[in-house]
Amino acid sequence: xxxxxxxxxxxxxxxxxxxxxxxxxxxxxxxxxxxxxxxxxxxxxxxxxxxxxxxxxxxxxxxxxxxxxxxxxxxxxxxxxxxxxxxxxxxxxxxxxxxxxxxxxxxxxxxxxxxxxxxxxxxxxxxxxxxxxxxxxxxxxxxxxxxxxxxxxxxxxxxxxxxxxxxxxxxxxxxxxxxxxxxxxxxxxxxxxxxxxxxxxxxxxxxxx
Amino acid sequence: xxxxxxxxxxxxxxxxxxxxxxxxxxxxxxxxxxxxxxxxxxxxxxxxxxxxxxxxxxxxxxxxxxxxxxxxxxxxxxxxxxxxxxxxxxxxxxxxxxxxxxxxxxxxxxxxxxxxxxxxxxxxxxxxxxxxxxxxxxxxxxxxxxxxxxxxxxxxxxxxxxxxxxxxxxxxxxxxxxx
Lengths: 209, 179
Prior knowledge:
Chain A is mainly alpha-helical. Chain A has helices spanning 3-6, 18-26, 30-52, 55-71, 82-99, 101-109, 120-130, 141-151, 156-166, 172-179, 183-203.
């Protein structure tokens, strides 16, 4: 699937650039901002998902990010791309959500994830199942579950970089801007995350060396 | 050797695929539908809420301005109204001069003298504060000029201590067996 076209699907085709729409929205055109929401909703949602790891919370964060972006639209001068500016807002909102005490309390009192529950990763799996390729069917399910679990144990900086890179919506430059880290650092973090995962899998008996 | 290398590479590729797939499954989730509608609804709600708050803020600001103006424009200090004068009564005789004691502090005396007015203080006429006279005798109705009050002389009896009489203590002799 072509990611560049995938980014702008789901809306009526519009020849206006993001900057044109931003200018219209700055002049009070709410529909123009709605078009910006439609164009960037997937990138924003997945950036939030990489941070909070829950589709429901990512949806809340995405809404907050768009509302905040609309209120701060007057401060956007167009020096950077609107999408990058929007993703930075999204990431800050997601970090705030991840650090919030109420979220920790909710996770603490939430029941453990079960196969029958309406949990985030169950939803993810349902969506991903439909896109599963023939090659993926050869991968051991047990190994898959272990990898998913071990990703959750990665250090945050490594995990954030790995998940943002795996979202398929953001370039390394965008990730670098979102995380506020140099491009080389972001690439190193992704590589290091994979290395740590393989090491942990080797400890579980999935030797690769 | 080639077999070992290919086997190791195959295992590594398998783990790489597992990692890729896990990340993909975690991240390639479609956002819930209607995000645009929900965002625009929140924007409209925020605008309406701001519009409803505006009159309240304006009222609070006006109240604050009125309060500040009233505090700054009022004269300071405020002069209290003078009390009405009491009716003129009989001028009492001036008090007899009393010589100050020997250890009187002259400086404090002068300071007090500065505060003492030389005008006579006129007190209101004091009427009968006990009401209409009645047939009962009371201290207020006693006419000392016509009647005489006979006061019986008090008899003072000197106090004396009563003698304390202590009976002699008699201890009976102990019987045999300690009983």
